[in-house]
Write a structure and sequence with these properties.
The protein is an alpha/beta fold. It has three domains: about 140 residues, no CATH class; about 100 residues, Rossmann fold (3-Layer(aba) Sandwich); about 190 residues, no CATH class. It contains 15 helices and twelve strands. It has a six-stranded mixed beta sheet with strand order 3-4-2-1-5-6, sandwiched between helices. Helix 2 crosses helix 3. The longest helix is centred in the middle third of the chain and has 35 residues. The relative contact order is 0.07.
Amino acid sequence: MARDPQSDAYTVTPRAVRLSNDHLKALSTATLLLVDLVMLAAAFVLGYEARGQLPFFVRPAEQPALSTYLPTIILHTATIILMFYFSQLYHLKRAFSRIEQLRNVIGVVTLGTLLASGTQEFLLQSTALEAVYPRSLLFYVWFLSLFLTVAGRELHRRVWAWLRRRGVVSDNLLIVGDGNIAYEISDLIRSSPELGYIIVGIVTAEEKQGDMLGYPYIGVYSDIPRLIDDLQVEQVIVALSDFRRAEVLELINLCQRGKVDIKVYPDMFSYVVGDLNVDDLGGKPLLTVRDIALRGWKLSLKRAMDLFGAIVGLVLLSPIMLITALLIRLESKGSIFYWQTRMGLDGRPFPMIKFRSMREDAETSGRTWTVENDERVTRLGRYMRRSNWDEIPQLINVLLGHMSLVGPRPERPMYVRQFRRQIPDYMVRHREKSGMTGWAQINGLRGDTSIAQRTEADRFYVENWSLWLDIVIIIRTIWQSITRSNPNAY
């Protein structure tokens, strides 16, 4: 039975009155729509000016007045806005990949620009609104539409992230559960104020005193409806790592109050299943719960990309690699390169090469695992590790076929033997070649971090491989290396 709110020791004072969640979502979408409209119209105007000023194409002797293109501007803008809408690019997410958004915007703007051009020929030809739409103008409009739309959306994202960090835009969030999953989610939200979540408390199966990471335990499952009303909760996360289906259905029923968004962390079976596929075996349907994405022609495609990347990288970076070798030799005694046996595809060992970033006697003490501020790392080595430069010689491993540009990070045989006993399905990560970079690395799961979480990230990569995913990982790795923003790189 729910407690009396007036006498409840767990009651938390609700926040000050502000715009409702629905109004804020509508405002965010409306401002993004306005930004897109302004940027697309501005792109056409600037494209018109660029055609008459820039030397990339033959400059026209005389251009029609800009007002002549007003119907074309309206058609161009409206077409792309409609395509953005149907592509769900106005379905805003708090956390999203900017690279993924860039890919979507490029596709929609390119198709929309061509569609608007063709539609103009069909609708406006032989009418008073007809205007010549030359290919040079089409190119400038397309390119500037891409650039300005992406820039406008990034500005919009930063403004709303700033508002969330300041608490101007926020959602009250209730977490259900007190295990490791609830702890990890709470920690992630606490370290990501730009998501705009305010954790009002944590609900547990049985009454509990104290707090988790500073967030109080404020009740039990039966209190959820009252807490949602009293604390104006707009988001509920059911963060249970192991539960019964009936229990989750009960919790969802308790949370269904008003327009509360309910999110449920998937249990292990749901995680293992992932994308379900139904195969046919002589008329008998079979449910595929485990499949490897990288096979057949995809292997050849990935190997071709590895060879191209390794050859181009070694040729272009060889002068800097030579300078690095000289600096290593000048700073400390010992070899320039560091060779170490690692385990890759199918658990087969191979010699992995790196620039030496530690003292020559670094492992004489018996310690092998690198930790933050490790005294064994040299001054040059600290810089190289922070920027991933010490791993550039692994392009040789890629060229020889020991490794791939992207894949699970290879570990030493002693650690593989240890982890495979401790972590279920650890060896799934060895179904593909090891990589210089990977999904786990770009998400900060490297160095002295959770092996279980690394394994989950590697399993996600193995089962969801695509050429585009590899490209995204490479781009993010290069950006993190240039900006030295690699999480847990030490």
